[in-house]
Amino acid sequence: MKFAELIEIWQNTNLEFSEIILAQEMIETGRDPEKVKQVLSNLLRVMLEEAEKNFGKRFETLTGLTGDNAYKLANVKPRMMSNFNHIAMVVALSMGESNASMGRIVACPTAGSCGVVPGVAYALWEVEKANFDDLLKAFIVASGIGNVVAKRATLSGAAGGCQAEIGTATAMASGLLTYYYSKDPIRVGHAAALALKALMGLVCDPVGGFVEVPCVKRNGNAVNVAIAT
């Protein structure tokens, strides 16, 4: 289903948009919406827990090409970005480096792009003191964006380039932020589209075939694109 069609359903009902996303999942897969919501709640909790545990941590990765980017950024006082952006960026790098060292991550939507959504989610949680239920609703909407891309295009970097991985993760993160602040799925659609446009054409060509360079730093850069869009 197109995202525009989900918006049309929302416009013709009095349901919250996150409920429509869950209902659509039930139609497509037959899964109980409450069970899907619980799964997403668990994933969000893992994101927040790992972001907290690994914030600014040093990692030993397989190649050694990454591992201290989050640590370095966490220990620098930001001069040209907000505290929100700074925290989101540190988390995005931390998740990417955790993935490269076999740590626990949520592939959102892929392992190579695992830092973008947790980056904005944790920044909302830590800086804005977000209510978990409100954050979960925004995360459900973000998952709906990822599902649309997965069904209508691809999430595979090998098939669609990094634009499919980081691009989709950024669209999801942008949608999450926009829904959290506005509860307006029309704005969410525009935000996700802007994020995808910003990263369109990004290729997948990791050094040595490892998900480290340029993957980790792309997570850090992409989280700022999500915030900007």
UniProtKB/TrEMBL annotation:
GO molecular function, one term: L-serine ammonia-lyase activity
GO BP: any one term: gluconeogenesis
Residues in Serine dehydratase-like alpha subunit domain copies: 13-228
Keywords: 4Fe-4S, Gluconeogenesis, Iron, Iron-sulfur, Lyase, Metal-binding
Keyword Iron-sulfur: yes
Cofactors: [4Fe-4S] cluster
The protein, known as: L-serine ammonia-lyase
Catalytic activity: L-serine = pyruvate + NH4(+)
